[in-house]
Amino acid sequence: MTEPYRRRPQTPRAGTGHRPAPGRARGAARPRLVVLRALGLGDLLTAVPALRALRRAYPGHELLLAAPARMAEAAAATGVVDHLLPAEAPGRAVPRRIEWRGPPPDLAVDLHGNGPPSHLLLRGLRPVRLFAYRHPGTPELPGPVWREDEHERDRWCRLLAWYGVPADPADLRLPAPCRPSPAPGAVVVHPGADAAARRWPAARFAAVARALSAAGHRVVITAGDGEGPLARAVARAAGLPSSRVLGGAADVPFAELSALVAGARAVIVGDTGLAHLATAHGTPSAVLFGPVAPRLWGPPGSPLHRTLWHDTTGGEARPGDAHGDRPDERLLRITVAEVLEAVGRLPEPGGR
Fold first, then answer.
1. pTM confidence score
2. What does the alpha-carbon distance between residue 319 and residue 306 come to, in Å, rounded to a whole number?
3. Residue 270, φ and ψ in degrees, nearest 5
4. Do residues 145 and 224 touch, judged by C-beta distance below 8 A?
5. How crowded is residue 272: how many other Cβ atoms within 10 Å of its Cβ?
């Protein structure tokens, strides 16, 4: 796989180093670096700056990502991951094991979470070094202090910086897809989310799609695995043919989804993976937030992106349950008119 980032790192923190494990013979197999990030698409994309930093710091290592098998195409699209190690668990839990063969890795990096489950999983690989946040449950591991109130991109870049690996949270763009968009210039509406708490009502998504279609926009509705009924209901209520729905019986293949988003006029979406894909491609987006504030998971500040968020707590970052079984009250405060106004203020694609 092409490794486009070869810049030498800055001087590392004393005792961490960017050198191969002692005693490695010249001409031996490439040292291996394993990263744990066994989560979804949005989680992978927010980790791209950290993955790029590791690639730059360890250009001679084989970079292996422990993540769900369905993330293989997206991992490859980052241009920095050599291989994916299938690893997953329900929800946001830590996998029980990582399939590992051969000698211990030169370095293991915990980009999954903070605590004994992920620390011990990686320690079980017997790495020469392990980068992780400090936790009282694993006092033998050094590392920086975990902060709850921190943007996800910043969190993992700060972890690496503590170990002497410089990382830029803004280094998050994906290369342009090689294939053409299935709907060039379309407005992409994604009504789904993996939890009801982050799912704006279908009737409101339909009203937005109907208004945009009436204004002359080509509107496409996207759906993840199992979200077909929701997407088709939105399309019907918006007066759109079923051919405007992509996905539903299964996820839209990543290559197709990436090309669609990269070539879109705009993306309208809740706090879910497609929002991060729009950010990664520099596609204008309107992102609707509910239980969690955009300062933790939102796009970077830019005219390209509009975040809609009604704070009712005076600044609390997580006022609701992001995995709750009903739409969050802050999400329900967002109106159709607000979304249409936000989309209307997005720059034209040529102004990116």
1. 0.90
2. 21
3. -85, -170
4. no
5. 23
Q: How far apart are CA 45 and CA 315, in angstroms?
A: 26
Question: Chain-centre distance of CA 13, in angstroms?
Answer: 28
- How far is residue 212 from each of residues 82, 215, 344, measured CA to CA in Å? 41, 5, 10
Give start and end residues of each alpha helix (H) in the chain: 41-46, 48-57, 72-77, 116-123, 152-162, 202-214, 228-237, 254-262, 273-281, 294-297, 329-332, 336-344
CA distance 177 to 72: 15
Helix (H, G, I), strand (E, B) or coil at 139: coil
Nearest to 33 by CA among 80, 94, 92, 93: 80
Reduced to 3 states (helix: H, G, I; strand: E, B; else coil), residue 261 is: helix
Q: What is the pLDDT of residues 125-181, one digit of tens each?
A: 999 999 999 999 999 999 999 999 999 999 999 999 999 999 999 999 999 999 999
pLDDT for 94 equals 96
Distance of alpha carbon 41 from alpha carbon 46, whole angstroms: 9
Q: Tell whether the torsion through CA atoms of 289, 336, 40 and 90 is positive or negative.
A: positive
**How far apart are the C-alpha atoms of 158 and 206, rounded to whole Å?**
40
What string of DSSP letters covers 269-297? EESSHHHHHHHHHT--EEEE--SS-HHHH
Question: Taking the alpha carbons of 196, 91, 235, 349 in that order, is the dihedral positive or negative?
Answer: positive
For the chain, list the domains and their CATH numbers: 32-162 (3.40.50.2000), 187-347 (3.40.50.2000)
DSSP 60: T
